[in-house]
């Protein structure tokens, strides 16, 4: 049994994980809402409090899925210029969690949240059995991950810089200026109270404008990632994130954009949902001493 954390833009979830069964242990999950613009003490108390609440003496290690920018080797937050958690800049989360649980700092291992998502799907979800796979998380922005033999690939000629699709451009502009929550809402011209889920509902109902906005954005995303997927040659691409909940709308738009990725045998939404990042984080938790 290990502990796992999923740190999102609006929440932190800590859970005890049965690594043999690849599932959360009943009664072992604690979630706390977060304010992305919260103060340092507020955010730190929420994160350490969730972990402390889920921790028991039987948990000897923790894996943590955390968005960037973050120093994953040192466990230090580097959030800056991303509109969330910026008050935590420079905070040593590894040391704070060690204090909260009584474990040695070395019992905590951090990884990127998109990498954790794909590792979870590779371990026990949609990408299981695929030696080479890729993942996209579509929500506030575009997250990405590439695995070969269960190892994260974030450099080399077959993947984007740092393995990050969000660093790529489409039409001379960052891809997130075309495909992201804010880009989709701006393209649709939505008013207050309207969100991506509403856009997807309108597309699902067949509204031409909603379908056109999504079609252009998804086509741009596909055109941007397809050359890299062709180089990396995954057999599976797993798509998660809030926007992917409208898979029946997205799939017919994304599939033709990836037609030239000859290696791809499976294009699928997440099978594990919110558990994917937790199971991926648990997968990298340090082995028992």
UniProtKB/TrEMBL annotation:
The record's InterPro entries line, in alphabetical order, gives: ATPase_NBD (IPR043129), ROK (IPR000600)
One Pfam family it belongs to: ROK
The family annotation for this protein states:
Belongs to the ROK (NagC/XylR) family.
Name of the protein: ROK family protein
According to its UniProt entry, this protein's organism is Spongiactinospora rosea
């Amino acid at each position: 049994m290990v502990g796992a954390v999923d740190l999102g833009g609006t929440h932190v979830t800590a859970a005890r994980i049965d690594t043999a069964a690849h599932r959360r242990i009943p009664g072992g999950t604690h979630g706390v809402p977060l304010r992305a613009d919260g103060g340092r003490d507020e955010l730190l108390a929420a994160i350490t409090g969730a972990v402390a609440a889920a921790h028991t003496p039987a948990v000897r290690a923790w894996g943590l899925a955390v968005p960037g920018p973050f120093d994953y080797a040192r466990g230090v937050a580097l959030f800056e210029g991303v509109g969330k958690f910026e008050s935590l800049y420079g905070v040593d989360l590894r040391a704070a969690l060690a204090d909260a649980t009584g474990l040695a700092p070395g019992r905590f291992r951090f990884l990127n949240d998109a990498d954790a998502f794909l590792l979870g799907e590779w371990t026990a979800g949609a990408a299981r059995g695929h030696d080479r796979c890729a993942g996209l998380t579509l929500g506030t922005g575009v997250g990405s991950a590439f695995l070969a033999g269960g190892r994260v690939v974030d450099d080399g000629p077959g993947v984007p810089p740092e393995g990050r699709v969000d660093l790529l451009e489409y039409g001379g502009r960052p891809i997130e200026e075309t495909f992201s929550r804010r880009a989709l809402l701006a393209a649709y011209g939505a008013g207050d109270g309207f969100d991506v889920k509403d856009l997807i509902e309108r597309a699902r109902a067949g509204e031409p404008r909603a379908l056109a906005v999504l079609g252009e954005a998804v086509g741009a995303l596909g055109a941007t990632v397809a050359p890299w997927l062709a180089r990396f040659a995954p057999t599976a691409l797993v798509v998660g994130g809030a926007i992917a909940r409208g898979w029946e709308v997205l799939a017919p738009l994304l599939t033709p954009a990836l037609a030239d990725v000859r290696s791809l045998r499976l294009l699928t939404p997440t099978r594990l949902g919110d558990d994917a990042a937790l199971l991926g984080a648990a997968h990298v938790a340090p082995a028992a001493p």
